[in-house]
Amino acid sequence: MTPQNLAANTRPGRWTKAERKRQIAAIALDLIATHGVQSLTLRQIASAAGISPPALYNHFSSRTEILIAVLDLIKDRVFEWIDSSRNPNIYERLRELAGSVHESKIVEHPESAILPLFELIAAGRDEQLTEQLAQRQLATVQRLADIVDEGKKQGTIGKDVDSKVVAWSLLGFGYAKDIALLQGVSSFVTDGTADKILDKLLRDVAAKP
Amino acid sequence: MTPQNLAANTRPGRWTKAERKRQIAAIALDLIATHGVQSLTLRQIASAAGISPPALYNHFSSRTEILIAVLDLIKDRVFEWIDSSRNPNIYERLRELAGSVHESKIVEHPESAILPLFELIAAGRDEQLTEQLAQRQLATVQRLADIVDEGKKQGTIGKDVDSKVVAWSLLGFGYAKDIALLQGVSSFVTDGTADKILDKLLRDVAAKP
Amino acid sequence: MTPQNLAANTRPGRWTKAERKRQIAAIALDLIATHGVQSLTLRQIASAAGISPPALYNHFSSRTEILIAVLDLIKDRVFEWIDSSRNPNIYERLRELAGSVHESKIVEHPESAILPLFELIAAGRDEQLTEQLAQRQLATVQRLADIVDEGKKQGTIGKDVDSKVVAWSLLGFGYAKDIALLQGVSSFVTDGTADKILDKLLRDVAAKP
Amino acid sequence: MTPQNLAANTRPGRWTKAERKRQIAAIALDLIATHGVQSLTLRQIASAAGISPPALYNHFSSRTEILIAVLDLIKDRVFEWIDSSRNPNIYERLRELAGSVHESKIVEHPESAILPLFELIAAGRDEQLTEQLAQRQLATVQRLADIVDEGKKQGTIGKDVDSKVVAWSLLGFGYAKDIALLQGVSSFVTDGTADKILDKLLRDVAAKP
DNA sequence: GATGAATGAGCGTTCATTCAT
DNA sequence: CATGAATGAACGCTCATTCAT
After folding, report:
1. Does at least one atom of strand E sit less than 7 Å from the CB of C62?
2. What's chain D's Rg over C-alpha atoms?
3. Alpha helices (H) along D15-162
4. CATH of D3-205, one of 3.40.1130.10, 1.10.12.10, 1.10.357.10, 1.10.10.10
5. Do D122 and C162 touch (CB under 8 A)?
6. Which of A165, A180, A194 lies at the smallest CB-CB distance from B193?
7. Taking CB atoms and an 8 Å limit, are B130 and A171 in contact across chains?
């Protein structure tokens, strides 16, 4: 056991309560990404976590609470992604973010975030997650819009651009891409259509010389 | 109505076999729209149809077959919608279609088509509907692209416009709108952002004078 | 339609009621022989008979009645088999009968009688056929015992032989053979054990010189 | 009883896992003996065991697995019965075994083994138990044949006797008896015919002086 | 913390049977 | 005579959750 681990150890076993919760949420996220949200049973999560189903109740009080934790994890990852480029030129930064989506760093990897989010959105009504979803979605849109606004001040983004429109367009593009993939229509990505849409989207927001 | 039709309608109960199937599919579609796909049980469908669950098996051989029938119904409705405007000016026609979406004739009504489709997409992996979905999705994209192509020939749509890009953008916009609504983020529609995106999308495809 | 058919035709369609019942019973017998009695559903019978399940109720008032008809058919076939040799020497006749069993004319052919009877015996308790079974079983034993008695009078069968014992032994042997086959233990037949038992059984009943 | 056993028995409730499985199998065996295999539902077993149907899945993973456990139980009981006489004189031992069958210690008691086995054999085809049955049947025949062989060495069984023939004859006799009873033909037993057959069978294997 | 055993609710499905047509 | 549509009862099975240990 490394000193690091010891440091993190207040006592319990090896991980703090919060860490263990996060681990379990990450496992659930993985399972959602690979098998969908409908087949996400406590048995599966427990088995993947190496414990028994009832043991999950030591960390969460219900299945729904686990899903909320997954939602939090997704939001964190999306924010991490948004902040992954620190390019001072905002327009360039957006290009980099778009590029990383395009390179599938986010969208296509099963361990990723948007696709499971999508699953959760669809399942939301039955799982009573709608409210939780709305909060996080708005926060994400706002975060993107803020960056665009910064770019407008900076002059790299067109002054007449509507920040919200851009933020929503980017998200919408990501969703559409996932929907296509979920439907098994990979041609949307492979034939370059997705790239063209994204490229046009970005060109339109650049500051006109 | 031909004598044949009369015969077919009055003789075997009141509805033909195909009609009854379609009715049940429509009921299932409703239920998906209002409660989501996860809670779509045979008991629910049967109850809404005023029959007992086993009676469904006189019309469909499994739950999956019902879902496929729903998929067909959705495709038909989407095509009806696409063909709902016969404006000879293709650009105007696209504007009308967009307008009808905006007026929520399709998207927001629970009896509508796209939102349930969305549910089915998310459920697809578990329900083994992926293949069926892909077929219908591609058919829809192609239908829209054909119309855009017609507009290019006609001269009302820009010659340099990529038909596929437009088709996918329109669909993607529709999806994004539904996702926002499913997440409970109605502000996307109410604050005019959705309109702005759609308007920009259409202006960009108009033939430049 | 041939004159013969016309002759047999009192009117109905092509067969008399009794004939049609017998045909259906024969179909059920086949199905039992090939798939067992548990999976004998009305759907199966009807489908094999080229009609719909409810149509069976025009001939039989319940599933149990069909099974009874099958029982009758089996009894008839067993009697036919018993009477298939008319060799005046009773001992020889028994040998011939035993031989025909051995040659699998009865036991191993799926269209045969004993194996399905066996299925019905096992199912009897649930199907309330016990009484019907007892009647027919006793009649069969009696028929065999009568023949043995005739042989004793004739002098080809030993005077000290107990006819009932012989009759039951022969039947018991047939049952044991079927049980072995049903269990998948074909070695009982293929390694000659079955033959040896039957041979010993017959030698023991021959009149001693 | 060793300390280990004590520990194993008192700690995990009151019974070990294996014991509980065996108890449930015994209950199922009883139900088969009294009502037949067709009506052996999980609800019945659970009810007789004083638990709810889903609770059975804590011990078995499917209905078929329960039936296999029943098969094992039957095999164990048959072997116990075979070993119930330890008379050093093999011929006498066979007589004792035959006697215990005759006294119905095995066959007629509902808690017994052969009759339910018989039910399982008939149900085997539908329940995919054929392979399991064949294994156990052969093991039983072999066990009996071994004893006969021992008697031949010992000199109490005739040297020219075919051990397999004897083993199969004994089993076949048992089967025939059960079949008769299942059919409701108790006269086979009550009028002494069964005894006579068994007696003859045994006399024929005795070593000739 | 973790587990084995248990449970109520519910699932999709099959069956023999009925009945209007 | 035959059928399509329907049904009550029952089936094997899975699920999230509870609780004593």
Report:
1. yes
2. 19
3. 17-35, 42-49, 63-82, 90-102, 114-127, 130-154
4. 1.10.357.10
5. no
6. A165
7. no
Residues 44-83/D with CB within 7 Å of nucleic chain F are: 44, 53-54, 57, 61-64
Residue B87 token pair: 């404006």
pLDDT over 60 (residue D6): no
DSSP of D4-28, one letter per residue? HHHHHHHTTSSS-HHHHHHHHHHHH
- Round the CA-based radius of gyration of chain B to a whole number and report it: 19
Kindly list the residues from chain C whose CB atom is less than 8 angstroms away from the CB atom of residue D164.
191, 193
Would you say D114 and D127 are in contact if contact means Cβ atoms under 8 Å apart? Answer: no
- A88/A21 Cα distance (integer angstroms): 36
What is the reported pLDDT for C108?
Answer: 45
Nearest nucleotide to D20, CA against C1' atoms: E5
The pLDDT score that the predictor gives to residue C78 is: 85
pLDDT digits (tens, 9 = 90+) for B55-111: 999 999 999 999 999 999 999 988 888 888 899 999 999 998 887 765 554 444 544
> Domain boundaries in chain D?
3-205
Q: Quote the crossing angle between the two packed helices C114-127 and C130-154, to the nearest 10°.
A: 140
- Whether the pLDDT of residue A153 is over 70: the answer is yes
Per-residue model confidence (pLDDT) at position B103: 57
Q: Give the pLDDT score at C129.
A: 81
Low-confidence ranges of chain C (pLDDT < 50): 1-10, 105-111
Residue B135 has pLDDT above 50, yes or no: yes
- Selection from B115, B11, B4 nearest residue B70 by Cα: B115
**pLDDT attached to residue A147:** 95
pLDDT of the residue at C46: 96
Touch test C–B: 3 Cβ pairs or more under 8 Å: no
pLDDT tens profile A98-131: 877 655 544 445 446 777 887 888 777 767 788 8
Quick one: tokens of A94?
A: 């957006």
Residue closest to B171 by CA, chosen among D29, D148, C138, A185: A185
In D, which residues are within 8 Å of C63 by CB distance?
A: none
Q: What is the mean pLDDT of chain A?
A: 84
